[in-house]
Design goal:
Shape: globular
Strand content: 15-25%
Radius of gyration: 14 Å
Order of helices and strands: HHHEHEEHEEE
Low-confidence stretches: none
Helix content: 25-40%
Number of strands: 6
Largest sheet: 6 strands, antiparallel
Number of domains: 1
Structural class: alpha+beta
Strand order of the largest sheet: 1-6-5-4-2-3
């Protein structure tokens, strides 16, 4: 019997570099592993698959600008969050609210918008903001 893949697993398979992907998936599967994964999100920019990661320009990195860019790629109203922020981690919440809570808060976070196709990454370092886009298929 095949189990349904979670939004977080689809995010990892789509947007984490192939050499790092299996380790991320392993960490995601246990509470202690997830805790380790979450602790490293602020500085995981180098683990992104560069083929699908598009840095957001500084003049477009406001919440409104990021939301508009995601909507151009077909974002819906909600997202699933993988975050250092324990209050947000694992939640499915309104995309606008999620952006308000992660942009410029110096915590690593992924927002899975269209699972496996569209996401947002916010790192801790200045300029570590990415739209992650992958075509279906």
């Amino acid at each position: 019997m095949q189990t349904k893949e979670s939004a977080e697993e689809r995010l990892i398979r789509a947007f984490i570099a192939p050499k790092k992907r299996q380790r991320w998936l392993e960490l995601l599967r246990s509470p202690n592993g997830r805790k380790k994964l979450r602790a490293n999100l602020a500085h995981c920019e180098c683990d992104l698959d560069s083929r699908y990661a598009h840095r957001i320009e500084p003049n477009q990195d406001s919440v409104a600008g990021i939301l508009a860019a995601l909507q151009l790629h077909g974002a819906g109203a909600t997202c699933v969050v993988l975050s250092e922020n324990a209050e947000l981690d694992g939640c499915e919440i309104d995309l606008s609210e999620a952006l308000e809570r992660v942009v410029t808060h110096e915590m690593g976070s992924f927002l899975s918008v269209k699972h496996g196709q569209l996401a947002y990454f916010e790192g801790e370092d200045a300029g570590a903001r990415y739209i992650l886009v992958r075509s279906p298929g």
